[in-house]
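note to self: the first set is below, dont mix up w the second
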Amino acid sequence: MKISREVKTAILVLSGIALFIYLFTFLKGEDLFSTTNTYYTEFDYNALSTSSSVTIKGNKVGKIEDIKYDFETGKTRVSFSVNPKLKFSKNSIIRLYETGIMGGNALAIVRANDNDIAQSGDFIQSEVQPGLITSLKNNFSGISSDLDSTIRSADTLMTNLNKLVVDESDEGLQSTIAELNTTLKSFKTLSYSIQNVIKQNDTKIASVLDNFEKTSKDLSELSADLKKVDLSKTVDNLNTTLDGIQGIMTSIDNNEGTIGKLLNDDSLYNNLEAASKEMELLLLDIKLHPARYRRILSKKEIPYTPPTEEQKN
């Protein structure tokens, strides 16, 4: 079948128009042969433009399709499309954020942790994340005030430094430099003196360092010997000895044993006191009547007469 020239021309024109439409939509970031899901949200003001990106975790998954002003609510209604492969909850948040310092905004999908999957055409709640430029705009008055105060403080500081340095006398600065030079010379002389002292006592300093090294070695050996000593065993033996002594003292306190009875029984003290008194009387009687004891072997017995109080004294 023969195709006329008019049909060929019409087909060529339609093909050109279709190609033009495809290229135009491609340059706009759209794909005629792909399907998308469309969702809606709204903001108090418009800071977006059509074809702005819609991202999730920094990855582009869609774009803004349309921006309209709602005369009833006074808000900006935004429709955006995303890849149908993306599934997210209808309770998620659509966040408006700045894409960079030079300006530009985009939308980010902040997922909610539930299984209520959003369907195409659903309305999603939104929020605005303050950016760097917005923060600077809001705080610019405070920053400018602080900067002005800082500049004034710097100016006052420089003025005070100028008053401190400048001397009205002609020789003020020269005198200061001369004093500084004298001070530096004194430090130089002192350093030379220290160097000479070190040179003259080099041998002594070396000897002192050697002695210190030997002392440190001796201390290290002593510490090693102390580590080898079984201090724990010695402490255990001492504890055992102290426990024994404590047992002995407990026995003494409880009137157990000879020592305990001697220390805690008053009868022994009383007996010793009585014996000492008898001994004292015996010695006194020997002193007063020595003849009685010279004749102790004789058959004639001399009776005992107790001493009077005057004789006792």
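second set (the one i keep forgetting abt)
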Amino acid sequence: MKAHLVQIDSAWEDRSANHAKARKLIAEANPQPGSLIILPETFSTGFSMNLPVTAEPEGGLSEQFLREIAAQYQSCVIGGVVTQTSDNRGLNQSLAIAPDGSILARYTKNYPFSMGGEDKAHVAGTSVSLFEWQGLRIAPLICYDLRFPELARDAVRAGAEVLIYIAAWPVKRIQHWITLLQARAIENLAYVIGVNRCGTDPQFTYTGRSLVVDPHGIIIADAAEQERVVSAQIEPAVIRDWRAHFPALKDAGLMTNAECRMSNG
């Protein structure tokens, strides 16, 4: 499976500009059918807590945009949206949409970023979500979730082989981002994909560093700091052979011997 990480400099609270920018970047990458296309957290508006601007109903403009991209490229598309609740708060979500427009997963960020006031605006999720694409079991996660290893463990316990963190992670803590993505890959014997934004907003500077990390913790794709799309091949056999060979998940009580053997086909 080919994964395409769309590292975008999101214009502040400008949905139409960001949709146009993302569309252009994806067109330049020209993903082939069956790909996985991933956009950052709150890519449509930037990481704003201005809910009258950012929050959309289910099926809103950003969700429609993701559906259009999925259909156009006959690929699975993941992107961050803010959905409005009945009590006028928000849900920071990662949507995974299939080529036919169906929603494969709608994951709500479990750990709103309290340091940035997100806990006042967004309601926390309470569980992980999984979906299957190209024979791989994938768990979407969001930004600050990366600092909580138990959440990744919950996803792996549910069967995840690929963990995808979409983010708006600022430059001040970018080394944490890189190190934690590698740690989550090593400890879970999983591919880990982190898709961050670049550029600036009224509060932070972002230096991208969208990464694909293999199950051994090796970085196999790095978008550096520019606005661009970086791509990498995700190989199911790499995950399954390593899990069958190395007993860490079995010893942690996350997989049985039989499941390890099944992982290896």
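remember for set 2: The first strand starts at residue 2 and ends at 7.
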